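Blinded run. Sample ID left blank on purpose so nobody reads anything into the name before looking at the predicted structure. Input follows.
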Amino acid sequence: MKRFQLWIHILLFSVLSLQSALTLFSQGVAVPRRVGRAAPNVKLEVPLPKVEFEDVAAKAGLTARHVTGPDFDKKYIIETTGSGVALIDYDTDGWLDIFMVNGTTLEGFPKGQEPTNHLYRNNKDGTFADVTEKANLVRTGWGQGACVGDYDNDGRDDLLVTYFGQNALYHNEGHGQFAEVAGKAGLSHSSPRWSTGCSFVDYDKDGRLDLFVANYVIFDIKKIPAKGTNQFCQWKGMPVMCGPRGLPGGTNLLYHNNGDGTFTDVSEKSGVVKPSGYYAFTSLVSDYDNDGWPDIYVACDSTPNILYHNEGNGTFTDIGLISGGAFNEDGQEQAGMGISTADYDNDGFFDIVKTNFTDDTSTLYRNAGDAPLTMSPIRDVSASTRAFWGGAPVFSMWTMTDGKTFSWSMAMSIPKWTLKHPTVLTSRKGSSIGTCVTERFSTFLNSRARASSSATPHGAQPSAISTMTAALRSWSTI
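Blinded prediction complete.
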């Protein structure tokens, strides 16, 4: 009996020793050794530019009130997520106009007082005119995000607006007017969905813009617990609305452009649905590994981020975890909100910056530029933890013809839209939620999608950012 107990103790000691050894040496085991790169030659003693911003929203005519549930006592998560913004030269006059997505309330509004989305035409003098009704864009609902792209290659930018419910696809008819064609185009759902971010992307390089739509949670108000009733309905000891944790995650969607004004749902076939149970918020398209195929990065709330790698055969593989882009530097998921991309260290590979929910810092993912693709999360791209919701990350999206960069970003605010001259739309009370509009030009081989310089700052041209040829515009907001 004593011999048996001795062997049991030896076995337990061996198991514990093996476990300790694995814990000690397992860091990075799944990633093969790679030759380190030389540190980039960065000038550190460059004086920072002096930039001052002035709130000119009212002066510019951006006076519409934004609605996202009641001002106080929000009982459900649908009342908290806010809405996005898109920049679009809808009348092709060479000046960017502004489209603002709006929400609503569960209680509703008296007839004629319902909130609506707003399209502001650029007057070319620093002011904007509300042309929503004239453009046929009046709609009330739980608006979330927007993305812009010329999906039928007719030379005019079209607009997709995501909702809780049914999304809206607005075809640009010309003459300053749009027609809603989501049902006709095959984008309607049999049941309500909570769509958030979206991106136009020519994922198969056939010259036609396809469509990716991120989805947040499966929301059924009849099944949502009341405030403060379980561990997912508490925040810092206070009872709050429930979610997203504790609620079922949505399913992301990919639509293939059929070239005849309609789309086919290829979410299953492409593998986009395989990452399941995630709370997807914002999507952004770029060729992160420079293989000539556009990939899709998705910022997720309270779950790991998704990096859909384009396999070049009509399918995608989520490499968020193995690439390092799923978590922060501590290996923790964050409440991802807004994202943007640029090559901040000039090594030829796009990096990613992501903002997060309150009491968390933004995360900068440095693209290592190796194979397989590796994103290295870098802590504290902001000076300190910010006590407000993550909004608009700012990265330079344009390269001017003289080699200078033009940076801009936009975000959502409550209760008034705030435009900070010259290019930043932010919150008057510092409470930016949702994500900024993130517009960028990428070049994808054999793409015939139009990329007009009319959408750039006046006199600028889209930058060639890879070795491929024709340019594809990809806008993504929530």
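Unblinding after everyone has recorded impressions. Residues 2-25 form the longest helix (24 residues).
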